[in-house]
Amino acid sequence: MNFQDFFNPDKVVDLSFFNFENAITACYYADIDLRVKKVNKNFKSFFPVLGNVKDAYFPDILKQLGVSREQIDFFVSEIREKGSVLIPKVKILIENQERLFSLLSTKTKNKDFEYLNGIQGQFVDRTNEHKLTLERDQLIESQLNDKKLIEEKSKKLESLATRLAKYLSPQIYKNIFDEEKDQSVSHSRKNLTVFFSDIVAFTDLTDKMEPEKLAAIINSYLSEMSTIAIKYGGTIDKFIGDALMVFFGDPETLGETNDALKCIEMGIAMQDRVAELQSHWKNLGAANGISVRMGISNGFCTVGNFGSDLRLDYTILGSPVNLAARLQSMAEYDQMLVDENTKNLIEREVKMAFVKEYTPKGFARPIGVFRVDGFKSQDYMKNHIRLSHKGKRVEINVIDSSDIRAAIEELKSIQEGFEKELSSKGEG
Description:
The protein folds into two domains: about 120 residues, Beta-Lactamase; about 190 residues, Nucleotide cyclase, GGDEF domain (Alpha-Beta Plaits). Strands 6, 7, 8, 9, 10, 11, 12 and 13 form an eight-stranded mixed beta sheet that branches. By secondary structure, the chain is an alpha+beta fold. Helix 9 packs antiparallel against helix 10. The protein starts with 8 loop residues before the first helix and ends with a helix. The protein is built from 14 helices and 15 strands.
């Protein structure tokens, strides 16, 4: 008699299956021939359509549950050949609702009780987990789509900003896009140096040239002049045909004197560049080359956004604007004219010649007009160290530190001058 003969087989099976009775999964035990011997309570509650499954062939149960033929064949072959099987996704229709299960099964072996040699397995309900996974995947996909959309919109905005930058002076562009406040209501009164230039006899040029060649010349000219204006810190207000309007002192300023000097530097650099490009423009069709005249004035202007609700211009208003335009129209070929205010600011550094007194329309008194003949020092535009002292105050602007020793020496000289002045007052 064998050891197992002393025990009731059903009781032994019940005892071995004890740990699965209260499992939250749907558990089953089948013999080696895949005949179901026992299921737990959850198996019955999960699949009420099955009823009593004792001694039923497990593949038939799967078929009744609506499991596909491919998955049933896979289950049988894996159990027989490998002794275990995992089917991660088994779709089963329960009460007209599709639920998703994982089916795990393995062979059991026991040397003492041969009736415990069979198949033990369980269905794990993955429906909620699957829904969460789908929701997560959909969220990730949505986020990826949103990211892609944002990247596309960002590229479009970058492209738009790049194109928009070409229509605005760099300083104005920065002022508009860096500020959080509403720029449409921002106006101020500032002392500015205003510059106008245009091409002499440009109308004659337009009448004689083909549109394509004319466009090539004017675009080349304005591009070169704009590059120089930006280099010297000028704010490009607008192009008016061949005319160029630039101002200094807003949105950034170096002080009214240095702003005016920067404007003169810019104008001279433009004159030099025009001279360099004459042969290029002649090759494009301007037979006599290009001559440019310039006008500069200094004074208080109102600066800010002007226009309508539909379109605004960041520009300046005031008599210095009108005066600069009139000085430009008065200038001879390749000449730069300045008003008295500008002359008073720059006369220490700039050579000038009196031209005449002129009373512009709308002005109460005559305006002195002066022609700019260059800087007094030939090295001025290379060595931008300027000091000035007015009364008891010393103003210093060091743009190039390469000759800082010269600035220190000049400060010492100013200090000695103050000391002598104080000493003479003390003796008196």
